[in-house]
Amino acid sequence: MNKTSFDQLLGEQIGHEFAASQQYIAIAVWFDNRDLPQLAKHFYRQSIEERNHALMFVQYRLDRDLGIIIPGIDSVINDFTDESAPIALALEQEKRVTKQIEALFAVARTENDALGEQFMLWFLKEQVEEVASMSTLLTIMNRAENLFDVENYLVRESVGEGNDASAPASAGGAL
């Protein structure tokens, strides 16, 4: 089968999603180690969500008989200067993933790959939500008078919870 730019970027995105998952675990552990259970829980959940995204790309490749290679990932950042730094990193990560998803969509369109383009639509919608959610969390962190306000915000707003029935299937099933 002839490799296309979309096919290549799709394979790379699996690695990007797994890397995001690992980075979120590192952030969660950092917050957990500082006895901030709601921030830790939020980022543990974000890690699972990114893992599920990676496996959505895997399932798509399986469904289209594109072959699968699970790439390794680079080291993640494990130490931060203060409580807003991990959230700022997460926001930058979500912005970077948004650009990656936009590039995938654009290449699918350029290659006249209607199935690929349709698959990427859900991820475009998801990235709008991810960037907005992380941006709000960073704003709350920067405005909060103390960390308990941030913890209470996460409980009160149930940030990042809920399943999206329109989400693509994940290989092995979503967690």
UniProtKB/TrEMBL annotation:
Residues 1-145 form the Ferritin-like diiron domain. It holds the Pfam family Ferritin. This is Ferritin. SUPFAM superfamilies: Ferritin-like (SSF47240). Keywords: Iron, Iron storage, Metal-binding, Oxidoreductase. CDD domains: Nonheme_Ferritin. InterPro entries: Ferritin (IPR001519), Ferritin-like (IPR012347), Ferritin-like_diiron (IPR009040), Ferritin-like_SF (IPR009078), Ferritin_DPS_dom (IPR008331), Ferritin_prok (IPR041719). It comes from the Bacteria. The keyword Metal-binding applies.
